[in-house]
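User: My collaborator and I are trying to settle a disagreement about how two of our proteins should look. Neither of us wants to argue from intuition anymore, so we agreed to look at predicted structures for both before our next call. Could you fold the first one, then the second, and keep them clearly separated?

Assistant: That sounds like a sensible way to settle it. I'll keep them separate. The first protein:
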Amino acid sequence: MSKETPCVAVCMIDPKTRLCFGCGRTLPEIARWHAMASAERLAVMALLSARMSQAGLAPIAGSPKRI
């Protein structure tokens, strides 16, 4: 079974914002990602662009992957 993910394989957490530089997720979100229901994953993904912009982080080029 594949699950959509915003991961772009740049897995580093910004110490100031506690967001991943690559995708904008928090560590708890990353840890729970595969246990989340599809609707919950999609809701988080809908927030990531704005979350990164508000944090002053530039999104890494790339599209969400299917794993």
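The second protein, kept apart from the first:
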Amino acid sequence: MKNITILLLSIVLLTSCKSDKKEEIKNDVSSEKSTEKAFVLTVEKIDSTQFPKSIKYEGHVKSAVRWKDKLGDNIVITTETGYHINQKFEHESEGSDAELFAYHYIISGNKVKRTWQVYDFISDCPVDLVAAFVKDTFQVTDLNNNGIAEVWLMYKTVCHGDVSPSDMKIIMYEGNTKYAMRGQNKVQVGVLDNGEKQFEGGDFKFDESFKKGPKAFKEFAKKLWSENLIEKWED
């Protein structure tokens, strides 16, 4: 009987020890999780005096920012040339050219690596031309909270001598993955007898990256498009 009692006590003690060890392991894991810091995206505006010397770019700087994320120390610069003549284009008329650029760099010590570039243009345009970023649309976000920032670029290109829509694009990069939304902005072209305004343009298409990507990306892109859909004529 004594032997049975000792055996039962031993089993109880062993079970208790195992439970304590499991509890200790759980507590250790909880402790580790509590010490992990959530990623906070902090984006700083910079100017050309703060660029690393090895950075080269074309055009006039429109915006420049710097931040750190899981990819490292990032710099993005957007530029426009405005109206000019670029001899690399063929000119069959007395038309002008306009180009825009966006550059992404990773900075590591004294080394600078360009990871992507966006480039678009209008060339040899004899009438009104635009190749420009849409005002106040450049943004850096982390919508899916994965510690890798998304860079949002929105711009228009057009060569026209009348009131007509411009080609409009949203280009977004998350790391090296490119997302594109392409279409036209919306312009008022007339008014019916009943006072109803008539518009042209406004359609868009998502590329496959957007279609397959996170819902948050598509929702943000649609919002950005909607907020800048109607052409705002500047004096």
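Some points you might bring to the call about the second protein. Residues 135 and 227 are 11 Å apart (CA to CA). The chain has three helices and 13 strands.
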